[in-house]
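Notebook, student rotation project (T.W.).
Task set for the rotation: take a protein with a known small-molecule partner, predict the structure of the complex, and write up what can be learned from the model alone. Partner molecule chosen: zinc ion. Sequence and SMILES entered below by T.W., checked by me.
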Amino acid sequence: MTEENIAQTARRLHQTTLVVDAHADTAGRQVSRGASRLDLSGALPGYEVDLPKLKAGGIDLQVFACAVGAHDTLGALRTMGLLLEEVDRHPDDLLLIRAARDLRRAREQGKVGCLLASEGSIPLHGERGVLRAFHELGLRLVTLVHAEQPTPWSAQADASYFGLCDDAFREAERQTKQGLTEWGKELVRLLNAAGIVIDLAHCNDATFYQTLELSEQPVVVSHACAFALCPHSRNLTDEQLKALAERRGVVGLAFYHKFVAERGGDLERLLDHFLHVLEVGGTDCVGLGSDFDGLPAGTAPLVPDASQLPLLTEGLLRRGVDEETVRKILGGNFERVFTEVLAGP
Ligand SMILES: [Zn+2]
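Predicted structure of the complex:
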């Protein structure tokens, strides 16, 4: 393919594929700044995700993490409230994803689907009724664990390690940690029954394998990269990639340089991660999990913002990834899991 053909093909793929980004912290960032309103119209500078950028990047479905940082129930409600207000304010542009059919509907109507997520399960307070209420409000994805210290209602018994490590450390984590708490195990069953997607980003290795065993539905890892290429605790080992793929799960590769390389990660190195996961896990287990608006202050993602996403697609095509596989990466794989889980058991 010539350079011109690559750019054209990337544009066409973005127009004709349901493009899914499995993780952005835009709303949570706005709430943590103390704002009483989220403005996705594009008027706010410094955000990597807003409506004009999503449209320019051809993104049809954005997963918005609603609980981050403080992990409290009120914070999660506040963030979800601001997002729901934005959906009300832009009915021609945004659609709340509540059911499997909404995924198709968003694309057919040319709207951006908003899927509400909780990064961490602390806001659920260990109570089935609270989960039920959050489901009613539109919560459709729960990351079991975030960066929290253990509380009486944590899904995981220990805090997750965060940083560079090695294979021996990962194996020790798997063997010696308790993994899921009793509530964590019940939560997996409740999420399956409610038709809410389980996300294993941020959890330790014991929780990862236990949840894969326990969950009757495929799970996702919304934002992580490949441990074989960058030995960060947040990345998935080849064994994890294979286990995830066997259970029809999907990992969204994150655009964070520290997950991509120990030093100097760039877009080319991120593309290496895509090729590695394709090789180890096959074509059905990889997607996008940008972590837009979620990286530490002053850190630019390897794809600068949502509008620039076609740069990644061009890179995949340039590396020889075929169009069908690119479609799966851009959204087909997450669409499959979300459709199956949101349809309910
Ligand atoms: Zn995260």
